């Protein structure tokens, strides 16, 4: 590819990214004008990042501050990065769904898993993120991003129980990259039996990340 066509390809992706963000903002304004539910939290990090890390959706703290993985989950993520032996700044960090999906009751507002329709609606933006960053390694945290990435690939997703901690090659629109599915960092809080498995997966990611440097 010539430098000129590479640049125009990147510009087209930037344009698609901007349009998709604007589409989401317009939808957000139309669908849920009230409350924090539809405040958007976009991905952050260097566009040239080698690692693309994809979570499920922002929580309350992320929505308040406008950045992904800054609340309790952010602390867990930072600990995970330490185990990988890389800095958070080495990755582009995003979520499949860019707003906090919630269940409202009279007394509380609680997080919920995004609906399949919400994941489907979020795929165009996730795809432009992925294509514009063209990472060497994608890390998915939990089931929702694993399913979303396989939806982009056009394949049935494996279960997280069978795919976690293993590397596979995937291809999306001519971009071939490696994927390592991981459990969500919060999973170990709810299921202590997963803690050891998650440690092993993190060590594996550490070895993969360092092989990317060669
Ligand atoms: N959990 C996620 O998956 N993403 C966030 O941004 C925060 C918590």
List keywords for this structure.
214 residues; Uracil-DNA Glycosylase, subunit E; 5-stranded mixed sheet; 7 strands
Strand content: 15-25%
Assembly type: single chain
The unique ligands bound to this protein are:
uracil
Total of domains: 1
- Let me know the CATH homologous superfamily: Uracil-DNA glycosylase-like domain
Shape: globular
- Unreliable segments of 5+ consecutive residues: none
CATH topology: Uracil-DNA Glycosylase, subunit E
Helix content: 40-55%
Structural class: alpha/beta
What can be said about the biggest beta sheet?
5 strands, mixed
Distance between the termini: 23 Å
Q: What does this molecule look like?
A:
- The protein is α/β, with parallel strands linked by helices.
- The protein has a single domain (3-212), classed as 3-Layer(aba) Sandwich (Uracil-DNA Glycosylase, subunit E), CATH 3.40.470.
- 49% of the residues lie in helices and 16% in strands.
- It has 8 helices and 7 strands.
- The protein has helices at residues 3-31, 60-65, 72-84, 116-133, 143-153, 160-163, 187-190, 194-212, and strands at 51-55, 91-95, 102-104, 109-111, 137-141, 168-172, 175-182.
- A 5-stranded mixed β-sheet has the order 2-1-5-7-6, with helices on both faces. It has a two-stranded antiparallel sheet with strand order 3-4.
- A hairpin with a 4-residue loop joins strand 3 and strand 4.
- Helix 1 runs antiparallel to helix 4 (116-133), helix 3 packs across helix 8 (194-212) and helix 4 crosses helix 5 (143-153).
- The radius of gyration is 17 Å and the shape is globular.
- Bound molecules: uracil.
- Uracil is lined by residues 55-59, 62, 68-69, 73, 95, 141.
